[in-house]
Amino acid sequence: MVIIMMTCGYKFRTYIIPDALFSIRHHPQVMQAMDIDGLLSGIDMTYYYSPSQRGFYTDAIKYAAFPEDAIKLTDDMHQKLLSEVNKGHKEISVIDNELVIVDKPIVTNWKSIRAKRDRLLKNSDYTQMPDYPGDRNAYAIYRQALRDIPQNFDTPDQVVWPLDPKDNTVNMMQDK
Known about the structure:
This protein is of the alpha+beta class. It has six helices and seven strands, in the order ββααβββαββααα. A hairpin with a 4-residue loop joins strand 3 and strand 4. The protein is elongated, with a radius of gyration of 26 Å. It starts with a strand and ends with a helix.
């Protein structure tokens, strides 16, 4: 018996295929045309979630080490958790002994700070061209402040981004 796990959009499916049908794995068109659910109609699978491993498990697979903290899921709960996590920026957490979907924490590190800084510098490169009609000096100051970010802050969480002169002009006009 062969177990095939696939995702399709936000749905996650586990298929158990008899050895006689295993060669079809090389032919996705055949897999799509087959009635996989029909093949699986008599097979019951129980799903589990392990908070320590941050993954799903099923009793249909023999694992070398099954996590001790695995929590048994209903089919509906399994599909709901997968659906929410696959929407992005979500993760499964245990709160008050219950599995819940929470927003992923935004991890700020120097690599992400530099990537944002580099993107902002690149997006304002045109402001330093001789024929730029706006305030080149304001942008030169802004761009220098961007370049100074890694040296002016001790940790990534302390970074305060300089205002783009374009946004600052809009703010000053609203103040009047």
